[in-house]
Amino acid sequence: MQCPEDNTTLVMTDRAGVEIDYCPQCRGVWLDRGELDKVIERSTTQ
């Protein structure tokens, strides 16, 4: 998948069980459907 901002190939990483796609060039972050809810849920339980 390409970054919509600068067309760089996105890098996928796993953070606490949530797959995050990010651009190593512009540092933009993209989440798939439902992943933002997981991030919010995990941040409130800490």
TrEMBL record:
Instruction: Give the matching InterPro entries.
Output: TF_Znf (IPR027392)
The chain positions of domain Transcription factor zinc-finger read: 2-42
* Short name of one Pfam family: Zn_ribbon_TFIIB
Q: What is this protein called?
A: Transcription factor zinc-finger domain-containing protein
- Phylogenetic placement of the source organism: Bacteria, Bacillati, Actinomycetota, Actinomycetes, Propionibacteriales
